[in-house]
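Exercise (ungraded).
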Amino acid sequence: MQSIANAAQQAMTEGVFQIETLPDIILEVPPKKEFGDFATNFAMQSAKTAKMNPRKIAEAIIERMSEPWLEKTEIAGPGFINFYLKANIIYDQLAGIIAAGRDYGNLPKKNAAKIQVEYVSANPTGPLHVGHGRGAAAGSALVNLLRAAGYEVSSEYYINDAGNQIDNLAASVNARYLELFDQTVEFPENGYHGQDIIDTAKRIIKKDGELYLKMAETERLTIFKELALKEKLAALKEDLAAFNVNFDVWFSERSLHPDDVKTACQVLQENGNIYEKDGALWLKSTAYGDDKDRVVIRDNGIPTYLAADIAYHRNKFERGFDTLINIWGADHHGYICRVKAAIEAMGYKPDHLEVLLLQMVSLYRDGELVKMSKRTGQSVTLAELIEEVGTDAARFFFIMRSLDSQLDFDLDLAKSKSSENPVYYIQYAHARIRSIFRQAQEAGIAKANQPKLSLLTDESELALIKKMAAYGEEIEYAAQERAPHRIARYVHELASEFHSFYNRCRIMGVDQDLAQARLALVGAVANVICHALAMLGVSAPEKM
RNA sequence: GCGUCUGUAGCUCAGCUGGAUAGAGCAACGGCCUUCUAAGCCGUGGGUCCCGCGUUCGAAUCGCGGCAGUCGCACCA
């Protein structure tokens, strides 16, 4: 890059052309291999200010470039400069990848901001469903991705263990409990209808029988609230652990009440961003771009959900995180504006909160949409999904689409153990490599310390090396874009290059030096596949 | 009505930090297993990148305006 800048600079001092400020020089890997190993559109970028034909500029630049690693350059299309690397460069790259071993793909630590990623954070009032599953898969993959890119990341689950919905949970369990003793009770209006609530009531009876029957209702509700919460939370953690999702911090909303909520309100009150109206306290969020002002303390004195969330985000910043990433379902998008408003009102930078919205998931079975209804509790749970398609397929399917896209989840495809299924396609590549190693060992092909990598000249071999060499950039860009689906795509492409190689080149039964070089190559491929799959939370089986 | 996201091959989707002939998987069609896993490979066909206008040397990509779908617009969480 620098040598392009130097050449341009030199051309200018020689008066060939004049540019006031050099544009950023962007090197990219061209879409076709006929366009060289990398290319720049620098000449076209400069064409306007230089008032000169981009091809002429390109010519002036390449005349002034001489680098030892450069095989040749050419001008193509409207003014691209294509660079061809000397062949040995690629083998140096491969040697570097092999030397890095399983660490290849872990980028140097960044000194930049500490990032906190909060995701799932489903209410502990029932089992996780498939929508939460997408959040869980994408969130955990994003955390892994950011860490690989060198960021310091803390992952967190916000437990909504305070407020109405928990009271509704207790009331629902209460109603089921009484029903099981043949009492007629009115089911709470906003109660939870799921089977799991009945199961909870049954477990309570199994353990303590009619112990709570004669209690005062309020007392019973208090006890049931704690029992149910404990049980739901444990189930949640179990489901997530089975889905390769683990959190550094489980943050209880209750811990914010009442002190943190009070402090946050005080801060806002002192800087004049809270006012009283109709007996309630309102956040002046319209001053920060929201549609309307929002109630933080209701007229009955109870804080709203927003109040707790304001305190929570303040707490996050106070803990020293510079960047907060929240992964929310798309149905919460209307909430972003008011939280950012509150953040700004408290004196933090709203840009330091990034909310990633996750679009909805639709399940398809036999080509038919699987209907879901939250109200009646009739929805496919994450546990059922894992049961049906397995963790690997479920995670990969959730991650392979961009977060912005609604996801059509084809259950039959996810289950199929065939070439149609991208998960198996990738895992199969890994298993094949492991199998090769087992057989090579039996055949007594020793692992070379200094394999003769320059023997790798087949186009499929070169393609594999180039693909692996691009892994670092891919991680960097995917992390920057918060786009874990790029890794899913990358590893699928790498697997494809491998399968192609596998059908063209043999390892056993060729010259010993070549066999050793190829073993070293596929060993590196296996490491990269492992690394990428590990980021996605998908296993890399030894055999299939 | 306001806002979010989406609209690209028959289907599901990448590509969007402006660049070369717009890609992948599935589906369709035709080939490849006496040698390391055929859960694989090779090949063929397939496009109004929703529409219009604008910015630009150059637009699937950026801006504005439409159209269609989605989700949301609480003193619920």
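Further reading is listed at the end of the chapter. For now, observe: Residues 115-254+321-415 of chain A form a domain with the Rossmann fold fold (CATH 3.40.50.620). The first strand of chain A starts at residue 27 and ends at 28.
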